[in-house]
Amino acid sequence: MPDIIHICYPGIGGQAAVATGLALEGSRAGVSHGIIFYGVEPTAEQYLTLCEENNIAHKTIVKKPGVGLGARQALSNAIQGMAPKMVISHHHDTAISAACSGMLKTSKVKPVNVFVEHHSNALKTQKDWVLGALAHRLTDHTVFLTEEYRKIVHARSEFLFKEDRTSVIGNGLELRLYPRRVISDFKYTVIGMQGRMDSGKDFESVIRAFALLSQSADYDFMVKPLRLELIGDGPDRTKLEALVQELKLTELVSFTGFLSHQSLIKKMQTWHAAVLMTEGETLSMAILEAWALQLPVISTRVSGVKELINDHFDGLLVEPGDSEELAKNLTLVLNNNATARRLGMSGRERVEQEFDRRKIWRSYLDLMNKLSTGSDSTPRGKAKKSHQLTSSYSP
Asked: Are 35 and 6 in contact (CB under 8 A)?
């Protein structure tokens, strides 16, 4: 039986990337992990493969849109069957279900419940705010990805917020998978963006900026022809493909769909600049991955990004929806190798210092042992005690 199980959404994205990464890091360190993939789509093949190759116990529960009472019962049964000491839920919905499952008198397994808050504050609906606050109160501890994020939630939910039951632990990357980028004689100058093609990500502004850049006299096309690579999928993809056709950019813009993690890194190693135009973030894995590959990053001056990127030091910021400003900043990094290298190197240093997954795992391990020894109060006013977890390495 795993000591710790993670519950996360099964599709390609931040939740599953973080959950599987922590499970892998913890398992390597000698702490057994399991994962329950829970959501309205099947589990992405790359996550299943990772679990199988590393002997990580896993289960997929596909719920129908809506309340999904049957799926919630299956989730409760899965938790009871795996009998973990700790459950880490990466969404408020599953955090509430997991906490309620442990409160039932019929439940033989009553693990410590931790809620990791991934959802961008800028994108939350009123329902999200209410359910997030409920998850915080019902679980034993809440992890926020940044201090700024925690402050905003505290201000918004002042009377429900219990700061002594919160921690700040960021996301992390396995740095050996991201070798320092070596500039080679690429045939094209490639600009790239990765993400889910929905209302939260502004791929349209990237396409329009690329159209401006492709017509600009400021970029010397005799040096290297431009290409735009868009990685991801989602409900807006058809509309974006139509825009590319309308702007007569079909030969210059490629849509790859979602890629395996290995293929994603391989693609990004051919980029010359990474863009993330977004409506809001918590702690963007896309930015961290671009930094790890020493790419210059251009993103939006919005909540969750402006606190992460130091403008003109480790990235460049533009106003939301401003294609002209984005085109100007792209021209700056593409025409100036020294600027591009400086931004990329500063980003890589940030990742090495702050977002190394081994260090992030150590922070989670310390939190787990704090909770399991009863030094942190639970929502029901009494500590849950269990055995300490030990790790076989230190970062």
From this structure: yes
C-alpha 171/C-alpha 165 separation (Å) is 19
Strand order through the sheet with 316-318: 253-257, 226-231, 189-194, 273-276, 297-300, 316-318
**Cβ proximity of 329 and 335 under 8 Å:** no
**CB-CB contact of 237 with 262 (8 Å):** no
- The model's pLDDT over 310-326, given as tens digits with 9 standing for 90+, comes to 999 999 999 999 999 99
pTM of the model: 0.90
Distance CA 4, CA 20 (A): 12
Q: How many CB atoms lie within 10 A of CB 25?
A: 23
Domains annotated on the chain, with CATH: 4-172+356-372 (3.40.50.2000), 176-354 (3.40.50.2000)
Closest-CA residue to 195 (of 290, 126, 130): 290
CA distances from 143 to 14, 155, 331 (A): 15, 16, 39
Phi-psi domain of 30 (left: phi exceeds 0; alpha: psi -120 through 50; beta: other): left
In this structure, the dihedral spanned by the alpha carbons of residues 17, 274, 143 and 158, taken in order and rounded to 10 degrees, is -140
Decide: residue 55, CB within 10 A, 0-12 exposed, 13-18 middle, 19+ buried.
Answer: exposed
Question: CA-to-CA distance for 380 and 103, rounded, in angstroms?
Answer: 10
pLDDT tens digits for 91-120?
999 999 999 987 765 667 789 999 999 999
**How long is the chain?**
395
Q: Which residues have a Cβ under 8 Å from the Cβ of 71 and sit 6 or more positions away?
A: 38, 61, 62, 63, 64
